[in-house]
Amino acid sequence: MRITGLDHLVLTVADIERTVDFYERVLGIPPVTFGEGRRALTFGTSKINLHQAGSELLPHATHPTPGSADLCLVADIPQEQILAHLTACGVPVLEGPVPRTGAQGPITSTYLRDPDGNLIEISTYNPRPAVESNS
């Protein structure tokens, strides 16, 4: 077997609409409704399904708990713009920008918390040095 990507993950949350508002307003991740009124957040080729704490769909994690996730999301704007946007939204920054290592190489990350206390890392991939041409 060879895993090729992440389709979706599930966040158990205390208040789905509060979570939807935060992720859309602060992180620019649009919500969708699917199935029988289920809510999710979509970005790129992935999504975050939202489960209401106490009403999780089966099967679910052994101990689904709001605030137990640690997510790293990749952005395509400079960290300075990320910081300015978070400030404008009134979202406190826990740490950053700081250097880290992502799945594809060096990244710069800023950390914050969502309404349930999940740790959210907003990262940007560092530009790769230009390769000089001898032609």
UniProtKB/TrEMBL annotation:
Protein name: Glyoxalase
Family matches, as Gene3D superfamilies: 2,3-Dihydroxybiphenyl 1,2-Dioxygenase, domain 1
InterPro entries recorded: Glyas_Bleomycin-R_OHBP_Dase, Glyas_Fos-R_dOase_dom, GlyoxalaseI/FosfomycinResist, VOC_core
Superkingdom of the organism of origin: Bacteria
VOC domain sequence ranges: 5-125
Source taxonomy: Bacteria, Bacillati, Actinomycetota, Actinomycetes, Kitasatosporales
Pfam families listed in its UniProt record: Glyoxalase
